[in-house]
Write a structure and sequence with these properties.
By secondary structure, the chain is an all-alpha fold. About 85% of the residues lie in helices and about 0% in strands. Helix 1 packs antiparallel against helix 2 and helix 3 packs parallel to helix 5.
Amino acid sequence: MNVPNFLTISRIILAIVLVFLLKENSLAGDLLAVIVFTIASLTDFYDGHLAKTKGLISDFGKIMDPIADKILLLSAFGVLAHIGMVAWWMFIVIAIREIWVTISRLLAMRRGQVLAAERAGKIKTVVQIVAVAAILLYLLAQQTGAFWFYDVQKIWLYVNYCLMLAAVTLTVYSGIEYFRHQLKI
């Protein structure tokens, strides 16, 4: 197993750890959740970067990298929806798109095609990561009870909501682009 594939697998494991940390609902849990999510997000960048620069691109990586992203982000969005930080409809829209695209990729794989992530999907993933990171930082700030937090709480919630709207919009758009491109093949 090469390093990029190891990083991809580690992202799946970190997603599981993230769920348990967020469900803990404590200062330590939220702090560790921010750290774990940051590390997991960085593995997404580095696995692709290493695969391209070192010539380590593999069919496993082409399939599992986007799946690992989906596992990480859907785990985060699911827990955040459960604790009321993300609207359920947003989570459902994102989950449906991610599941449909994943099923499509797996069916293509059965036909002998390996479909790498497209540009719109990569941008969508970055915006989703930023949205989750902003919400996790909000939870951490809330847990600290810092005096300044209450002065900016409403603004921060508004920014989080706007980031989630952007994430949902890009998720839908990238899904439409993905299937439009598949119809041309």
